[in-house]
Write a structure and sequence with these properties.
single chain, 377 residues, alpha/beta, 7 strands, elongated
């Protein structure tokens, strides 16, 4: 007798018989009960939460739109809401020194311009040239190129370009690291460790594909000089390739809404709005107060903005100042950007949730996280 026949005989001799039809009926009954008491209530709860969040977002959009149109109707520009005047034209009663009243170069604070780069063969000349053309006393301006390029050819080209501008009398520093730890956040953090940075009060930051107008510092730095509670001046992006394809047109509409409505409304009502990672000017003491740059997420710019806000600092958005930039023109680049913008805030919120909820600005911060985690289409 083979093993198969023996096993079948042993099974037949067992006193227990399995009624498979009854088992199937019991499983169907258990699933029906689970569906009635667990699955259906859970789905209903999710539907209610989704509807509630939809209504909240709709009301928030209406509020932002109302703030935007109020700003336009009453002309509530940042220059009217904050102290602003050209540097070197202080009123005599303000107690500033005589050289400042006369408009000498000593009235201008020392500004550091940081340009982080990574294999930027196509745009490195444009970005470095635009930074070196900024209108500011030469002895009060430091250009810092933070080159993390892994392509030795690109590194040589960037270094040669920096030397070319240095020969023209521009105070430009070419800085490289031995590794790429922390990526952009690590490069910015390392850049602040150099001794010459100790003399600087403010930092203007531009990604390698951004080119500011020559009067950028003249229009933004006065907000920081005359308002000691402001940590960041954020400006608007101007897209030079918005008409390249349908994808860039959609992105322009989405980001125009982000700048015109969300950031401007947040600035007007003194609410939180995030740093866009570029085209902004920071107060160095505010960065230090918030703990400096951290590389724990892919949104180091929002991380710093949240921590700075929790310390009580204010931000101001200046929409009239525009910095030229480019939009991703391929779906692959666009998808990578949206993944970073969506997942980064979610990871940051998990790391800082308790700290945010314990702070009085938790409502505006939480709302900003929700908006950032929704991809822009």
């Amino acid at each position: 007798m083979d093993a198969g026949a023996g096993a079948a005989r042993l099974w037949d001799e067992l006193p227990v018989r399995v009624d498979w039809a009854a088992v199937a009926a019991q499983c169907a009954y258990a699933w029906a009960q689970a569906r009635a008491f667990v699955v259906v209530p859970a789905i209903r709860l999710l539907v209610v939460l989704s509807l509630a969040m939809t209504v909240m977002i709709f009301l928030q959009k209406l509020f932002v739109a109302a703030v935007f149109f109020t700003v336009k109707a009453f002309g509530l520009k940042p220059e009217r809401r904050y102290r602003w005047r050209p540097i070197g034209t202080a009123a005599a009663g303000d107690g500033e020194d005589e050289e400042a009243l006369l408009g000498g170069s000593a009235a201008f604070p020392v500004v550091l311009v940081q340009i982080p780069m990574y294999n930027e063969r196509e745009v490195y000349k444009l970005s470095i040239g635009a930074a070196c053309a900024l209108e500011w006393p030469a002895e009060r301006l430091v250009i810092q190129v933070l080159d993390d390029s892994t392509d030795p050819v690109v590194k040589d080209l960037v270094e040669i370009e920096c030397k070319r501008w240095k020969c023209k009398g521009v105070n430009i520093k070419y800085e490289v690291r031995g590794n790429r730890k922390g990526y952009k956040a690590g490069a910015l953090k390392e850049g602040l460790k150099h001794s010459y940075v100790q003399e600087c009060e403010y930092i203007a930051m531009f990604d390698a594909d951004f080119q500011p107008e020559s009067d950028f510092l003249l229009r933004t730095v006065p907000f920081l000089v005359h308002n000691p509670d402001i940590a960041l001046v954020q400006t608007r992006w101007k897209f030079v390739n918005s008409d390249e394809c349908l994808l860039t047109r959609f992105q322009e509409m989405s980001l125009d809404y982000h700048f015109k409505f969300e950031q401007e409304a947040g600035s007007v009502i003194y609410s939180f709005f995030g740093f866009n990672g570029t085209a902004g000017v920071w107060r160095i003491s505010a960065i230090d107060d918030a703990g400096g740059w951290k590389d724990r997420t892919t949104v180091e710019d929002m991380d710093l903005a949240v921590r700075t806000t929790l310390q009580g600092w204010k931000f101001v958005y200046v929409g009239d100042v525009k910095v030229r930039s480019e939009l991703p023109s391929t779906f692959k680049a666009y998808r990578f950007q949206q993944h970073r913008w969506s997942c980064g805030p979610a990871n940051l919120f998990k790391k800082m949730m308790v700290e945010i909820l314990e702070n009085k600005v938790c409502v505006s911060l939480s709302d900003s996280f929700v908006k950032c985690m929704a991809p822009s289409y």
